[in-house]
Design goal:
Elements: E1 2-7, E2 11-18, E3 21-27, E4 30-36, E5 45-53, H1 55-65, E6 70-73, E7 75-77, H2 80-91, E8 94-96, E9 99-101, E10 106-112, E11 118-123, E12 142-148, H3 153-167, E13 171-175, H4 178-181, H5 189-192, E14 195-201, H6 202-209, H7 214-222, E15 228-232, E16 238-241, E17 246-249, H8 262-275, H9 279-295, H10 307-316, E18 323-326
Parallel strand pairs: 1-6, 1-12, 2-10, 6-8, 7-9, 12-13, 13-14, 14-15
Antiparallel strand pairs: 2-5, 3-4, 10-11, 15-16, 16-17, 17-18
Helix pairs in contact: 1-8, 6-7, 8-9, 9-10
């Protein structure tokens, strides 16, 4: 029996630090920032980092470091990058209960920018090719499932896993990306019916229920079925809603090195707190501590916290404990 099984992508990630320009394009709909490289030139790379990534493996490692018995369910290729993913999972005490296929393992190139954010070139590969019939159902005994975003054939597998969870009294946490939320609530309704905890950022929330303040968005999202809603808003902090109270928490002000994996780190920390039944306030503290640690370093797994480190981090950072709770919206 696992505490939690993560379902999602596995990738081999290359972080390329280069000299790039940041340009802003304004339109009637607002403004967008773009990383720009000159055409027809050879761009020197200042630094290269190679790590494993993907929402499924990032969160699996995070849960394991926080003391939960964890397995990862996804699909990788029978190639050197896939073997590297599996080796990292083994080192982190995460069981692999997924599928090794003939497709190429997912691959991402992360380009830095002048600012704190980044642009990711991603090849989904095997991540899109998981089918429900390939999954060994004997290995699915768990108290929780954690779903990150999957598309293609793998999304259909996730829908079937949501139904399996409902039939077997397994709680589900769901962290969809814009790939899914831009299609609207009807597209993910089969999964939402099984979801206990829904975590997404403000932009993704607005794709599902329209524009608004994060407090309002959380309440509207709860009407889609999940019992606990968490909406993150970058530097503006986070809001959680449990059907009775709204919890608001500010972000820690730290020097951001790189933001890849910050969402996975927060979501896994929050869900770990809820799996341990320590309540929303503790879960918010744990999620924010984990995300803050990750953004201060390069890589999605590089500085995920273990349980001892998380407790120390929370004690050292008073802002992690600042939560405002109220009974009315």
């Amino acid at each position: 029996m696992y505490d939690i099984i993560t379902v999602g992508s596995a990738t081999f990630d290359v972080f390329a630090l280069t000299e790039a320009e940041l340009i802003t394009i304004r339109s009637n709909n607002g403004k967008d920032e773009h990383i720009a490289y000159p055409v027809g030139t050879k761009i020197l790379i200042d630094q290269l980092d190679f790590q494993t990534g993907g929402g499924g493996t990032n969160t699996a490692v995070a849960f394991a470091r926080l003391g939960l018995k964890t397995a990862f369910l996804g699909k990788v290729g029978n190639d050197s990058n896939g073997r590297e993913v599996l080796l990292q999972l083994k080192k982190e005490n995460v069981d692999f209960i997924g599928v090794i296929g003939k497709e190429q393992t997912g691959y991402s190139i992360i380009l830095d920018s002048i600012e704190e954010d980044r642009t990711i070139l991603t090849y989904k590969g095997a991540n899109n090719e998981l089918s429900f019939r390939e999954i060994d159902k004997r290995k699915l005994a768990s108290r929780w499932f954690y779903f990150s975003s999957m598309v293609g054939k793998s999304f259909k597998a996730m829908e079937s896993l949501a139904e399996y969870a409902r039939d077997n009294s397994i709680k589900v946490a769901f962290n969809p990306s814009a790939y899914l939320t831009k299609k609207g609530p009807a597209f993910i309704s089969k999964i939402l019916r099984a979801v206990e905890i829904l975590i997404l950022n403000k932009e993704e929330a607005e794709m599902l229920v329209g524009r608004g303040q994060i407090n309002e968005l959380a309440v509207r999202l709860s009407k889609l079925g999940p019992k606990v809603i968490v909406v993150t808003d970058g530097r503006n902090g986070v809001c959680a809603y449990d059907g009775y109270n709204i919890y608001r928490q500010s972000a820690n002000r730290v020097k951001v090195k790189e933001t890849t994996g910050a969402g996975d780190a927060f979501a896994s920390g929050f869900v770990a707190g809820m799996v341990e039944r320590k309540g929303i306030e503790y879960a918010l503290n744990l999620g924010l501590a984990n995300a803050t640690s990750v953004v201060m370093h390069i890589g999605a797994k590089n500085k995920l916290l273990d349980k001892k480190e998380a407790k120390q981090f929370i004690r050292r950072n008073n802002k992690v404990q600042v939560i405002r709770k109220c009974s009315k919206v």
